[in-house]
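Dear colleague,

Thank you for sharing your sequence with our group. We've completed the structure prediction you requested, and as agreed, I am returning the results in plain text so they can be pasted directly into your records. Please verify that the sequence below matches your submission; if there's any discrepancy, let me know and we will rerun it promptly.
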Amino acid sequence: MCASGPGRRAVLGGAAAAAAFTVVPSFHERAEAAAPAAAPAYRWRTAVIGGTGFVTGVLFHPSVRGLAYARTDIGGAYRWDDRAARWTPLTDHLGWDDWNLLGVEAIAVDPAHPDRLYLALGTYAQSWAGNGAVLRSEDRGATWTRTDLTVKLGGNEDGRGAGERLLVDPRDSDTLWLGTRHDGLLKSTDRGATWAAVSGFPGTPSASGQGVTLLVAAGRTVYAGWGDSDGTAGSPNLYRTADGSTWEAVPGQPSGASAKVPIRAAHDRHTRELYVTYADAPGPNGQSGGSVHKLAAASGKWTDVTPVKPGGTTSDGSSDTFAYGGVAVDARRPGTLVVSTNNRWAAVDTLYRTTNGGRTWTSLKDSAVLDVSETPFLTFGADRPKFGWWIQAVAVDPYDSQHVVYGTGATLYGTRDLKHWAPRIRGLEETSVRQLISPPTGQAHLLSGLGDVGVMYHERLTASPSRGMASNPVFGSATGLAQAAARPSYVVRTGFGDHGNGARSNDGGKSWTAFATQPALAKDAPGPIATNTDGSVLLWTFVHWDGTTYPAQRSTDDGATWSEVSTYPKGATPLADPADPTRFYAYDTDTGTLFASTDSGLTFTARASGLPFGDSQFQLAAAPGRSGDLWLSTKGNGLYRSTDGGATFTKLTSCWASYTLAFGKAADGADYPAVYQVGSTEAITAVYRSDDGAKSWVRVNDDQHQWGWIGATIAADPRLYGRVYVATNGRGIQYGEPV
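Please find the predicted structure tokens below.
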């Protein structure tokens, strides 16, 4: 998933196996044949599911009614369009090479200049990830200017729900502060165009710590949370500067395990009090203790205002461990604020609200009425949804005291009366998509296999699936989804679930029945699955999350019994022939060998060898309605095609890299299905379509619709020419069609 663009090429097999395929002249030798035609006009939209990912921050603009921004851990940033009551994505222009910038570490607005917006981007702070960047806009994110940083940010690392780590200085709109995880505090004096380390900041950065967890202005003073304290007295976790130059540890600050990591802070300008939520770990997972404290700026007095101390016992005897996360003050009412619990699995997370500065609190969950009819998946297969989990983003509208929103691991909830809550998620889609199928018949034009939210049946693309997540069983993340080519009503799926890991459908994916039995490996290593063209044979592979692979298992009775296929290449993704029910294929990426079965998956033998191997991105696909017409897309070596069931392959010259491939309805007058790919014909990795069997390609996405890394899978509609569905890693399912 962490491919970084057209840099590394796959290794080819040895000379002894070279006869198995034909290499025609390279792309560079025949550049004139590979130049893409003029891009057709396409309209791109997002298939509606509704959130599904972790919303890590929500920020109402303090000076503009109805203007708000949201950030996510892997799916970019959004602006709230109050008139349309929906979110507008702001970072879809980031392309393949910038995949690491789809994680948003922090957002900042300028109260004095409402059109200015700043984003700190960077998904991972690991050595293999690229450096972060800051985007700055003068038109609320409609257009951007970019500054690349020399440090890494971690929008999808532990601590991603803390913050904000980016701040416009309250004394000078040209000055910005940026807190990093491993490189201390940075400062810009030219509105984010250039950055330099703050030499006088007291925190000592480390390669493995949290660094700066939050930045907040309290009047003209800037406070910085520090996540690398050990929690003991004398080990500061909150610093401040009153002049922008000299930093000091805030005197009298709380210590101990429950106040080890400052998560978020908010300033009540009426009472001149700073509220800080704390946890014993950065979260969102792994927290078991926390607290809420306030600092009176005038006197320097700290007060513990924690609503409920973690560590009690629930009604069923479970330990009620949790931390505190979000905090938001009411700009209109002194002493009124909302805080959230986080990682409270026993009693379920809640929001606490106070109107008297924290002397007493009310749990808003206790009186909440949740309406998830717009996004039914939020029940996660239960009778009713939870109030929330992973609640670290909380905001109160500065123009409406009863307008409160909070983020969870799957959505944004909002209220206008502090009692009735519903998703406020239109336009915000953060799903990580694993599998896509566009059926040739039936009501639904799309089935999807997703991270965290299982499998969905999309009877409409403009509304969240009415059936929610596929049940019986409910999956967390899907690992396999397959349809019988000649019997499209028959679909099978696999994934991680608490009550089974495989299921079948006889109505095209509307309803499901769990396999009667499943191999023992399915619990911890459910991999991809295939069904032959008439649905009489299932072939299930097993891959543990740590990468360990196991022999495939075969069933000829709808999953009632299973038997091992010893000759199947372990770890390979199975592919059924779309026309011949006796044929299956599998591509062994370790050796660059194509394996095939002609006895309905009972045994497999090696066919073509010497194909690309050792790289991380391959896909074997079969052209619909044709037996033995196989296509192999490879990250570093482009496209290969076989028309003899994998006995031999020919390398095509029209692209130099291909990540995923799909077939759709043929163009008028064409005798071969339209071919779609995410690949590279020149320098850019993009979505392409070919109407002439991959002799030439046209790019169908554009520079404003790129969505970072899109190499997982694509699907093309067999009923509508030109429509293609693109799986993203954090921007849901994008679909385009000719205008």
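Summary note from our side: Residues 22-43+431-738 form a domain with the Methylamine Dehydrogenase; Chain H fold (CATH 2.130.10.10).

Kind regards,
the structure core
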